[in-house]
Amino acid sequence: MHSQVPLGECVPASTRYAVSVSLPTWQDNVDYELGAPRVLERMVSGYPRFFIAKPIQALVELVKDRFALPNETAMVFPSPACAERCIAYIYDQAAKQRSAGLACEQPARGQLRVVQYVAEPIDKRAAALDTIGRLLESPIAIYCVLLPEDLFPLAKQYWQHTGSGISARLADYCLHIARVNEECEREVRPFLPASKGASARRKIGYQAAGPSVSPGPAAGDEAQLYEAGFEADAYMEERFGRNCDPRHAAEMKAVLRRRIAGALSAEEQKQGAQVERGVTGLTSDDVYLVSTGMGAVYYAHLALLGMSGRKSVCFGFPYTDTLKILEKFGPGVYFLGHGEGSDYDELERILERHAESQDPIQAIFAECPSNPLLKTADLSRLRELADRHGAALVVDETIGSFANVDVLSWADVVVSSLTKVFSGDSNVMGGSIVLNPNRALYQPLRAAMGAVFEDLMWCEDAVFLERNSRDFMKRVPGINRNALAVAELLKASSKVAQVRYPKFTTAENYARIMRPTSEAGYGGLLSVEFVGGESASRAFYDSLACCKGPSLGTNFTLASPYTILAHFTELEWAAKYGVHADLVRISIGLEPLDELLAMFQAALDAIPAAAARPR
Fold first, then answer.
1. Whole-model pTM?
2. How far apart are CA 493 and CA 594, in angstroms?
3. 75 pairs with which residues across the strands?
4. R_g (Cα) of the chain, nearest Å
5. What are the pLDDT digits (tens) for 88-145?
6. Beta bridge partner(s), residue 533
7. Strand, coil or helix: what is 166?
8. Quick check: 314 and 334 in contact, CB under 8 A?
9. How far is Cα 162 from Cα 145, in angstroms, rounded to an integer?
10. Nearest to 210 by CA among 231, 229, 235
């Protein structure tokens, strides 16, 4: 079992580029949302779309030192298109906030601007002497949005919703080249001191990127230690065949696309990674890789907006940023948050009303199963309604994963977060978009994707994602078995009010899309609520002897008070759709089953009898 990780540390512990952070008590999560210094000051990492990673923070300081005016800050992006969309978002949202009577500065036209920062070694021979310096032969450009500090929250919203920011690994590469160039300049001009501001910030960047916040060496020594650790990590991964050389990232991306399409070579099939997607004619050309799971939702939505620019429908209660994307980018969305019962009839009325007004609905978005309620929509009914009214059906398969469910047979577009169970190691971000070649909208969607899609997955991220996902199909059955056993243990407890799990929640709909193989199951995610309400949830959560923090789909068990983290400012609204503040979401891992069951039983035993009350 993974032991509990101290507050604010990386999850998993001591993992460079970890995509989760330890929030081991219920109160830690509440205080994080309240911005309590006791929590924020101890955080060395966080979920990358919510917490700007330390290397990226250091790169922003370097960019500000070089380009920014007083009282300006910066956000960094991998392409000019991403940067320009950020600017457009800020102008749009600032105007909407002012119209709503909120205090928000309206930037003047031209006040927000994009500058290009190029990472290119002065001395390529010197840069090539170390491992990271061998990565690339061409310079790397990043695009920096410079904006007034008061508008940073809007830029951060864009970063969070769309997942379009740069990777922490890319930021580290840029910082590394800056350090190499600084050393070269010192050798060429030994009697001229380096810029104090820029130099200090670069060194602080390396210090901040380490896995610990305990006191350590001076900044210069820390930079050298960090570089040495970076070198050692790269050497170990490549030396023992776990990672390929990052210069082969294009080949690794091709492997990933084949793996997701199920169109593998004979050698790849021998590794046990084969899956039948159930769709004839599907090839790796129908798979698009993006940098984050939310990036997949965002680019699919952008492509659809390019086709029609019309409203969409969100069917069921989705992950928080999916709804934000549909609400804030484009003409808006109808939200049918229950995703069952009368919502089907309401969906039909919406589609018919828009058809009669010659303004048809653009798309229906659904998660199967949904996060965190684990509901599965009736995809056959959604497909029939979409066909009747010419709408695209977009399905997010992240929670079920294509190892367990076939949603592509029903959908026009399937999106997924590869950060989760596809990777499993919680050390890299990624997402995918898959188009169904047998649907009527396939050709228009391909053209629309071609107009907006950019291959922005950083080479090192592609390499780690390829490495992590080689045994994806072998890992999932073990996670399925463990999760089912834990779900049944919790369901049998008199202290539990409800277990949300695809076997128990809208089970008939899930059964229709579950793959007809012995290895397919119900996935690794479940949510639980207790008879004793929040006090019981606190006791249970605080007593769990596992990793606790954001994210899911990890190879190790990971729990979080989901609603507190995702909907802290809108708890009453979320509760209207059954997403209660005392809900505990649990992602089950690959630990020995007897240890898992003992841990969960101990957490149940920690709930005092006095906490029990009727809901």
1. 0.90
2. 17
3. 145
4. 24
5. 999 999 999 888 888 788 888 889 999 999 998 877 665 555 545 455 667 899 999 9
6. none
7. coil
8. yes
9. 15
10. 229
